[in-house]
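Anyone? Bumping this.
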Amino acid sequence: MDREQRSRLFFVGLLAVLPVVMLLSVGSGPITIPMADIIDILLHRLGLNSATPDIQQQLVVEAIRLPRTLIGVLVGSSLAACGAVMQGLFRNPLADPGIIGVSSGAALGAALGIVLGGTWLASFTELFQAYTVSVTAFIGGFLSTLLVYRIGTTGQGTSVATMLLAGIAVSALSGAGIGLMNYIADDTMLRSMTFWQMGNLANGNWSAIIVAASFLIPLQLIFITRARGLNALLLGESEARHLGLNVQKLKMQLIMLTAIGVGVSVSLAGMIGFVGLVVPHLVRLAIGPDHRWLIPCSSLLGAGILLLADIIARLVITPAELPIGIVTALLGAPFFITMLWQQRKRIL
Amino acid sequence: MSMIASASTDECLRVEGISIERGDRRLISDVDLSLKAGELLAVLGPNGAGKSTLIRAITGEYPLASGQVLLNGKPGEQWDTLHRARQLSVLPQSSSLSFAFSVREVVLMGRTPCDSSREYNEEVCNQALVLTDVLHLQNRSYTQLSGGERQRVHLARVLAQIWDQPKHGHRVLLLGEPTSALDPKHQHQTLTVARNFAKQGAGVLVIIHDLNLASQYADRIVMLKDGRKCVDGAPEQVLTADIMQQVFDIKTSVIKHPVHGYPMVIPI
């Protein structure tokens, strides 16, 4: 079986598994709802089933679990796809929105939006009330992406060591800014910021989901259309130019789009680390680095893995729950250490 | 269309008085060059003479301080990158690909600018893999290959890129030290491939350090020294003890190849 067939099979497999994980996610929690009941509730909502479902179950599904699951799908797929694209862009499999400081930049932007949004930004943000935090998160993410990219890239390509160091510096700087915001925030702001820094899929409502989806879904589709360009970019920037690509334009587009993806994801669910690093890496192990398959498969696997992490976060200490960022970090950090261990000779 | 047809020269690449400056250093001064379709041109010169810079100037990577580069009669900056990529392909001196693409996938990347069917691309890929003797490696991961094998894979890729004869003009192949990591058999094989590619109507410019390989395969040799072109002519005219002394600062004796008659440079 050649790689193309294996990739197709892998993609179809993921496509088939994701709905099951989504049903599992809708069903799991303090109140367990059987899959058959979930399907009944969804069919009833769509007007395809006349039998009236249990009111309590319906409420739990429609107001809590389903939005949460959809946020998990949107955020997980976007973070994984952005991770894959960023690794292609930096020509380095260790690039990840969290590690190179993009998420923390976005979190700083979000913190600024939360704390200052209500005060002196108010006149400006009145128009964009619903979008304020998303916009500031995006700006924060974009600026840090640009900064890390500029510091890490020379004519010879992108240096891992420099990039990771730049990421540390950007994270430290953002951390200081977030600390400052913590200091001047009131109790409500503080609480919402704490959730942000550890990640949480439970904070969204339907309108936030629709807004986020209108960014995140087209974004991932655009990524897929840039797959051949990303493949060529892995050969090197001048090689990609010789292959007829407008490299500068492609790079700017992709930086812009990953910043939007990370910014919107952070604004929806806070900082969730390691999904962007681990998921594309797993997909590459399974089907190789071809972006035409890597990006869509990363999206699907990212959505599935984030949902599983969220189910774990909900179940380990029911009826309370862990912040999801802690779960992904607990699972992802050892993985990252293993990768560093294997590659440390190449990095030095 | 009529313009190109009426200008039906065989010249596919023309470099007119170009100079390149990086910072306050002048890398290339006032170089002229002409490459005809069907011709294999070898560019020789000491390290730092400006050979790789010349390729970067032709591809537009470095801005020109003066002069111009014409590809099939049209100035370099007037080409859009996609159409240029269908006529001009470049083998870089070294390539850094750290992702585990298979050899076949790397060669297929050469077809990126071409809007041909997948079946046709696969067919081109097969033929290019055979030409450069890497067909047996096609499913191996690029990252596991030796330096010489990688060089041959990239050669297959750049050949696949300009496999098809364009409707107008001629194809140009620029090879930056394609033989530097190769064993003797594959050095000869690579240059034979380059020469056959030229015979099919392409212009081929190859940077090379081995004087005798250049002598055996090139139709014409250009020598650069300190960013200037100092010699341009057929191997018999260029490969002389005097010129070797002048350009490379080495003492040599030049003899005729006992079988084929081309000049051979032997250090003494």
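Late reply, but here is one note on the structure posted above: The CA atoms of residues 169 and 221 of chain A lie 32 Å apart.
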